Amino acid sequence: MTIARVTTPSELRDAYQAVLDRIANAAAKVGRKPEDVLLVAVTKYATPDQIRMLVDMGQMDLGESRVQQLEKRVASLSEFLSRKRTLGSASTREDVDFTKAATHVRWHMIGHLQRNKAKQIVNLVDLTHSVDSLRLAEELHHIGVKRDKPIDILLQVNASGETTKSGVAIPAVIHLAEQIDSMVNLRLRGLMTMAPDTEDLGLIRATFQRTSEVFQEVKKLGIGGKYFTALSMGMSNDFELAIECGANVVRVGSALFGDAEPGESEID
Ligand SMILES: *Cc1c(COP(=O)(O)O)cnc(C)c1O
């Protein structure tokens, strides 16, 4: 099913407000405040204009799932922001918190990352959600050693067992988290997961719950220390459920922008 493309500024504003309301309601249900859940607006279905409009509305956390598209988006938005003189990266500050909305634009890499592309994105993004293997972590650490600040990452967990999904199996999470924690130029900020492709809410809930449990376990063991705070789970169709299960970062695309792929010309 293709959701009609959100086009006008007022339609985008309404869609944005509707997502913020859904987050607030879901948070309230479990006794949390709306600002305790970070919305990452996933721009893969958005036009550059829509991204600019959303930033103008105050949405600073943006996510992309593909390297090439990320590069284009960052470049085009930076140009817009520098014209507006509002450019700045929050990640240069020590107190950066990935569970609270940013005051400057932050980019999140949320899709599968090949090792040979890692170098292309590290200086463009503030947080990579999709670290799914020791080898990718090692590659990022290697890159991190060469620059003056650590690379912030989430470990992607495959809690559904679906073979089509990236991510570390639940039983391997603790050990891999420990290994990443020992890499001085990586900062383990939390965990990320994706729900299985199913309409079965029970199955989706179980996936979120399992991830939430292992998140608490890692935290209890002190792995990642004070930096280990973010639990990124939930997308347009299931983020209420994710919040209920403890997510404090949600990644939402089609509920904001519709789900039609923008044409190439729109991305440039
Ligand atoms: C596309 C994507 C999202 C957003 O999905 P929607 O269903 O459009 O909200 C979230 N996370 C990842 C990893 C994605 O690739």
Plain-language structure description:
The chain has 268 residues and is of the alpha/beta class. The chain has one domain: Alpha-Beta Barrel (TIM Barrel), CATH 3.20.20.10. It has helices at 9-29, 48-56, 67-84, 118-121, 134-146, 173-181, 201-220, 239-244, 254-257, 264-267, and strands spanning 38-42, 61-64, 106-109, 127-131, 151-158, 168-169, 186-193, 230-232, 249-252. Strands 1, 2, 3, 4, 5, 6, 7, 8 and 9 form a 9-stranded parallel sheet that branches. Strand 2, helix 3 (67-84) and strand 3 (106-109) form a beta-alpha-beta unit. Bound molecules: pyridoxal-5'-phosphate (PLP).
CATH topology, which one? Answer: TIM Barrel
Percent helix: 40-55%
Cofactors and ligands: pyridoxal-5'-phosphate
- Name of the CATH class: Alpha Beta
> Looking at the structure, what is the overall shape?
globular
pLDDT < 50 runs, ≥5 residues: none
Please, how many domains?
Answer: 1
Beta-strand content? 15-25%
Rounded Rg:
17 Å
- Second CATH tier, the architecture: Alpha-Beta Barrel
Largest sheet: 9 strands, parallel
- Number of helical runs? 10
